[in-house]
Amino acid sequence: MLKRVLVANRGEIAVRIIRSCREMGIETVAIYAEEDTDALHTQLADQAICIGRGDVRKSYLNISNVISAALLTGVDGVHPGYGFLSENATFARTLQNVGLVFIGPEADLIDRMGDKARARQTMMEAGVPVVPGSAGTIEHMKDALEEAQRIGFPVLVKAASGGGGRGMRISLDEADFQEAFSQARSEAEIAFGDGSVYIEKFVQKPRHVEVQILADHYGNVIHLGERDCSMQRRNQKVVEEAPAPGLTAEVRAGLHEAAVKAAQFVNYRSAGTLEFLLAPDGNFYFIEMNTRVQVEHPVSELITGVDIIAEQIRIASGEPLQYRQEDICFRGHAMECRINAEDPTRNFMPSPGLIEELHLPGGFGVRVDGAIYQGLTIPSRFDSLLAKLIVHGKTRDEAIARMRRALSEFVITGPKTNIEFQLKLTGLKEFREGQIHTGLILEKNWSE
Predict the structure, then answer these.
(1) Percent of the chain beyond pLDDT 90?
(2) Beta-ladder partners of 353
(3) What contacts 272, CB < 8 A, 6 or more positions away?
(4) Does 292 qualify as catalytic in the annotation?
(5) Lowest-pLDDT range, 63-67, 388-392, 418-422, 440-444?
(6) Each residue of 21-59: pLDDT tens digit?
């Protein structure tokens, strides 16, 4: 078992990792940019070390600085969390080269599944259904248009690298295809340093459903059920829940089987997520694999009782899985709302600043994963996520009622937040009835 772990992240996920490590008897080292000197994760860790200031490229994305901090503090493992360096194969490979454990899959696997076009091809070889699209990346407009015509409009132009909705454009017909193709390539180059794109069929009004898996170094692979992440704004997840509402037993079993098959085919070892689009006709298609822990992992933890972070650390330490598939029991319904420092009345503009007053909700079945406290100044340079409000209930209706009660108790003054927006969203008739899809938020007039 690892004895001392450096947490190569910030915010709520850094706090989440530190808490699991402490329960496991593992010492932790926090890294921080100067702007995060007073951040909660620096106070909870056994040791904290500054790795730079200003732009994230000089701090949390600076591989040399992060590895130097790991070596200076004598850790034997590094947990990347999500975002930042979590899916950076160069980082994982460099850690291995200096004798440190990367708490995640092997670097070659990150390379293989991080390139979405290559991942599509791999899943096709594994027999996992994928959205109809190009066999690989496309560089020239003429070739791209021909491929789009072959697939049939509407199509989606997508960056081969990265994620989070960046480098992604919808083209409804030939008239707007050239602009969509050019914009996707340009945005991908700026965001990821790689302008490669591929094209796939745009599935209209789909649901976004993903399956959480755990896989060890001994060939054991299990799933922890599926999550529905269809409530999105600009391709960014807003509300997540588990299990996905309204699935037939056949579709649910098919999703689980496909995810386990995919992980086995690529010899995956760690916690990971297989993401699928679920079409209105019940067909589902692989879209990507996240080779890291997800923001929304707590909803899977609440319905299974499995600490995903702890299992991820045990796997990285070389231990076999503690669970067989038949050990996993699914209980009730869990839901997560992302609480962000942003102003919904100003097109969700980030709203950093001093937290003047804070009251966190509580009560039966309520969990808050956050890194905030009264008197903390939220920096402007980093992600706007303040906390994740997670609830559990016997049924989906009970989970919704509990979420709305908890949201109504959540008080943050100073920065603007999306708490009221989340109350409106969870009160939507379509949401309450489970009639959800990835475009639902976009359809609504939030100014009313």
Answers:
(1) 87
(2) 378
(3) 105, 212, 213, 215, 263, 289, 290, 291, 292
(4) yes
(5) 440-444
(6) 999 999 999 999 999 999 999 999 999 999 998 789 999
Q: How far is the C-alpha of 270 from the C-alpha of 280, rounded, in Å?
A: 32
Which 3 state secondary structure label does DSSP give 387? strand
CATH number where 138 lies: 3.30.1490.20
Looking up residue 95, the CATH number of its domain turns out to be 3.40.50.20
- For residue 162, what pLDDT is reported? 67
Structural domain harbouring 284: 207-443
pLDDT band, very low/low/confident/very high, at 396 (cuts 50, 70, 90): very high
- Do residues 278 and 139 touch, judged by C-beta distance below 8 A? no
Say yes or no: 157 and 89 in one domain.
no
223 and 88 together in one domain: no
Looking at the structure, do residues 264 and 354 belong to the same domain, yes or no? Answer: yes
In this structure, the strands spanning 47-52 and 27-33 are parallel
For residue 345, what is the DSSP state?
Answer: G
Rama region for 23: left / alpha / beta (φ>0; ψ in -120 to 50; rest): alpha
Give the confidence band of 164 by pLDDT, cuts at 50, 70, 90.
low
Q: How many residues does the chain have?
A: 448
3-state class (DSSP) for residue 74: coil
The pair of three-digit structure tokens given for residue 187, joined into one six-digit string:
């945005």
Q: Is the peptide bond prior to 280 cis by the omega test (within 30 degrees of 0)?
A: no
Question: Active-site residue among 292, 314, 367, 396?
Answer: 292
Contact 320, 220 (CB under 8 A): yes
Measured between alpha carbons, how far is residue 95 from residues 17, 192, 271, 316 in Å? Answer: 19, 21, 19, 13
* Same domain as 163, residue 218: no
- pLDDT tens-digit profile of 8-20? 999 999 999 999 9
How far apart are alpha carbons 239 and 428 in whole angstroms? Answer: 13
Q: Which two tokens stand for residue 5?
A: 């772990």
CATH number, residue 257: 3.30.470.20
pLDDT of residue 448: 56
pLDDT score at 237 = 95
Contact between residue 51 and residue 67 where contact means Cβ atoms under 8 Å apart: no
Which pLDDT belongs to residue 163? 67
68 occurs within a structural domain: yes
Domain final position from 103, 123, 143: 103
Closest CA to 266 of 130, 366, 121, 438: 121
Q: What is the mean pLDDT of the chain?
A: 95
Q: Is the pLDDT of residue 107 over 90?
A: yes
Q: How many domains does the chain have?
A: 3
